[in-house]
Amino acid sequence: MRKLLCLLAVTALFVTGCAGAGSLGNGGRTLVVAIVSNAQMKDAISLKGEFEKNNPGINLKFVSLPENEARAKITASTATQGGEFDVVMISNYEAPQWAANGWLENLEPHMKATPGYDEGDFIPSIRESLSYQNQMYAVPFYGESSFVVYRKDLFQQAGLTMPAHPTWDQIADYAAKLDNKQTGVSGICLRGKPGWGESLAPFTTVANTFGAQWFDKDWNAKLTSPEFTKAANFYVNLVRDHGEVGASSAGFTECGTRYAQGNAAMWYDATSMTGTTEDPSTSLVVGKNGYAPAPVDKTQASGWLYTWSLAIPKVAKDKDDAWKFMAWMTDKEYAKKVGETYGWNRVPPGTRKSTYEIPQYKDAAKAYAQPTLDGIANANQQKTMVNPVPYPGIQFVGIPEFQDLGTRVSQQLSAAIAGQTSVADALAQSQKYAETVGKSYQEVAR
């Protein structure tokens, strides 16, 4: 932890150019909100006038950054108690760890003091993932598992049928048959972009279902095990042979754009992709899509569990105003506002049970609502892993060191996808990184 905090202190040097949290804006107080620049978050930024109108005296300033950059700045600021942000967007990876470290405000009193907020409406697994000692320290903006979207028209033309529960071998076979170099349609799109929250998210679910582990129960690193090696070779070969051009630099956003423009037959990624795939203002494939569960090999399920959420750093100066904003962005009415303003396919999914009872949303989301809920319900280690592990998380290893370890391993994976190194060499180097981390936990256990 000392090494991590030293690293964060260095990173914090780059957290510059932001107005300090709690600064005074024109005509009132300005809340500085650090947020990831995904599609649903951009909708929230565009609706900020609604909040400011109903909360005179509070102005919102968003610091919107790409995922990898946002993670670094938010982590550095929160860990070093820099106070740059009043509200931060984090995930179920950070929330329980940061709560245990005393870095976040306990939100239970705020929720209970807010009429109609109804914390019991949150999907249970999402709520639990953001809790520490049965207390919520972050509230979900959207939640997700993972699944496969596929072009029903292309499958029909090729005489293929997507099974109700596909295996990875079947997906690889379909990708080979649907890959069309002449039309520029790749058989599949898979993330290859470095980042522990980028390429490692889908890849680790593949590793899990192949029977791999990052660490065994005694914290021995297992990145060169036969199972991990098989999974890495499978993933790299699939994306190299039948994936998108420039896969080593393609993440969620790039694959989303490619698929929505009709340039991929399948895409395995977050269930929140539907905000892209089913948006008639930007997608050319609306109405042509089918959705299937995350593919498996040896396990019953393989989807991940993830939620982008909002939290208040412990050092934030005005927690009451920060909570007012967070409550607005995560309550039941926000979903209706987005649906009425931008279309029901743009509603943040996977957090509140009540969202799935809105008639307009049920109609718009009929192709993917149940697959999303099923994926979230099945996203636990018992169903997605072959062997027990000593860490929490499915698509991530829930320890502080994983931000650095995961990023290093993802860089090796990306290099293998780009053809700059072999899978064997990439895993050998990754094993060394993981052994260093594993040994630190073994020493604590002694």
From TrEMBL:
Instruction: Provide the transmembrane region boundaries.
Output: none
> Which keywords has UniProt assigned to this entry?
Signal
Q: Does the keyword Lipid biosynthesis apply?
A: no
Report the domain of life of the source organism.
Bacteria
Query: PROSITE patterns given for it?
Result: PROKAR_LIPOPROTEIN
**Known InterPro entries for this protein?**
Bact_solute-bd_prot1, SBP
**Which is a Pfam family this sequence falls into?**
SBP_bac_1
Family annotation (CDD domains):
PBP2_TMBP_like
Leader sequence range is 1-21
Q: What is this protein called?
A: Carbohydrate ABC transporter substrate-binding protein, CUT1 family
Protein's organism = Amycolatopsis saalfeldensis
